[in-house]
UniProtKB/TrEMBL annotation:
Record's protein name: ATP-binding cassette domain-containing protein
Family annotation (InterPro entries): AAA+_ATPase, ABC_transporter-like_ATP-bd, ABC_transporter-like_CS, ACT-like_dom_sf, MetN_ABC, MetN_ABC_transporter-like, NIL_domain, P-loop_NTPase
One GO term (biological process): amino acid transport
UniProt entry tagged with the keyword 4Fe-4S: no
Function field: Part of the ABC transporter FtsEX involved in cellular division. Has ATPase activity.
GO cellular component terms given for this protein: plasma membrane
SMART domains: AAA, NIL
Length: 326
């Protein structure tokens, strides 16, 4: 559904060029949720502006459902943008308009009949769980309710894609979970394709099917959540399934183990202890549910006499990924 190919954006600042996006490529299948994660200055805001054609990229392309948006004429940009619903960090509601009027605004701009607008607004208010709040002004709404209005407004033009720019960073944890659950539910119910720009790994963990790590304008890691989580050497895996730091421990070798799916429930360590007549010291552990799959990560230390080659072979047969800890 969404294909970004070798996207570059170079700004001119005084006498020098600043490269904000440096060959960004990614693909998001229809009906899925993709997270773009990165720190401040990584290029996330520039990517949003290029995806919505608020900025024309220097080179590269953005294609949605087979149509290359970066090739449309300036006169066609507004129509092209209607295919992308935009959810902002602070909702960006108009204070002088009620919730219903805020949702209606995109439809009014294109001359939609009032009867059609009224029916659509009622439908959207129900869809985001705000029945009874049509006449409320933004000042009368909580942060989560404002964001629900913002999501409803983004859906008013029946977009193919929902682009969410830090949609929960201004919300408390409980409200964040509610909004993320709403986005996930809407994705399934409306068959949307969602791109979430965020700096919060918890957002990715909770609802994303795939993820890209953006750094200095480049995608440095990407893939389905299950794949990136399975790469013990990857930076994303370390953030998705974090382990606390442990001080150096005298004794035998230290291993990091990754358990996936059923192996997270199997008694692998107790069987290993009996099989090799060795003690296993668990230094740290973590369990996460990612994209519907349970992942477990352990850092363990074995006795100095343990046959490490045999241990590696045994764990591999049990479906456990093993890395020697640095």
């Amino acid at each position: 559904m969404i294909t970004v190919t070798d996207l570059r954006k170079v700004y001119r600042q005084g006498e020098r060029d600043v490269t904000a996006l440096d060959g960004v490529s990614l693909s998001v299948p229809k009906g899925s949720i993709h997270g773009i994660i990165g720190h401040s200055g990584a290029g996330k805001s520039t990517l949003v502006r290029c995806l919505t054609l608020l900025d024309r990229p220097t080179s590269g392309s953005v294609t949605i459902d087979g149509r290359e948006l970066t090739a449309v004429k300036d006169s066609e940009i507004r129509a092209a943008r209607r295919r992308i619903g935009m959810v902002f960090q602070h909702a960006n509601l108009m204070d002088s308009r009620t919730a219903a009027a805020n949702i209606a605004h995109p439809l009014e701009l294109v001359g939609t009949k009032k009867s059609v607008i009224d029916a659509k607004v009622r439908e959207l208010l129900g869809l985001v769980g705000l029945e009874g709040f049509a006449g409320a002004y933004p000042a009368q709404l909580s942060g989560g309710q404002k964001q629900r209005v913002g999501i409803a407004r983004a859906l008013a033009s029946d977009p193919d894609v929902l682009l969410c720019d830090e949609p929960t960073s201004a919300l408390d944890p409980a409200t964040t979970d509610d909004i993320l659950d709403l986005i996930s539910d809407l994705t399934r119910r409306l068959d949307l394709t969602v791109l979430i720009i965020t700096h919060e790994m918890n957002v990715v963990k909770r609802i994303c099917d795939s993820v890209s790590l953006l750094e200095a304008g480049r995608v440095v890691e990407h893939g389905p959540l299950r794949e990136v989580a399975s790469d013990l050497r990857g930076r994303l895996a370390k953030q998705l399934i974090p382990l606390p730091a442990t001080p150096p421990s005298p004794g035998g070798p230290v291993l990091e183990l990754l358990f996936t799916g059923q192996t997270t429930s199997d008694p692998v360590l107790s069987a290993l202890t009996r099989r090799f007549d060795t003690d296993v010291n668990v230094l740290a552990g973590s369990v996460e549910l990612l994209a519907g799959t349970r992942f477990g990560r352990l850092r363990i230390q074995l006795d100095t006499h343990t046959d490490m080659t045999a241990v590696h072979e045994y764990l591999a047969l049990q479906g456990v990924t093993v890395e020697v800890a640095a």
